[in-house]
Amino acid sequence: MNRESLQGSWEAHYVPVAVEGNVGVAQGRTRYLRPDGAVEREFENIFNLHFDESGRCTRFTEWYMQPRAT
After folding, report:
1. Rounded to two decimals, what is the model's pTM?
2. What value, to the nearest 5°, has the Cα angle with vertex 66 and ends 33 and 20?
3. Are 62 and 49 in contact (CB under 8 A)?
């Protein structure tokens, strides 16, 4: 996923890591880019999602942190 914005761009990649019943967990990374394409900020994400019987998300919790500099 990639989206343009006035400040630059962002890109994100998420994958499901667990699903049981109407609850899912996804893990991913979000990067906010400068207009020149350089990474300005980066976050590791965990999402906890709860869905109703029609498949609509009824509750969403996000945890995020910046990765350690290497």
Report:
1. 0.76
2. 105
3. no
Buried b (16+ CB within 10 A) or exposed e, 16-37: eeeeeeeebebebebebbeeee
Q: With beta carbons less than 8 A apart as the criterion, state whether 33 and 42 touch.
A: no
The two structure tokens encoding residue 42: 């980066």
Token pair belonging to 41? 């900020």
Tell me what pLDDT residue 6 has.
52
Q: Report the distance separating Cα 63 and Cα 33, nearest Å.
A: 21
CA 36 to chain centre: 22
C-alpha Rg value of the chain to the nearest Å: 15
Residue 70: Cβ within 10 Å count: 3
Residue 5 scores a pLDDT above 60 = no
- Residue 47's nearest CA partner among 24, 13, 21 is 24
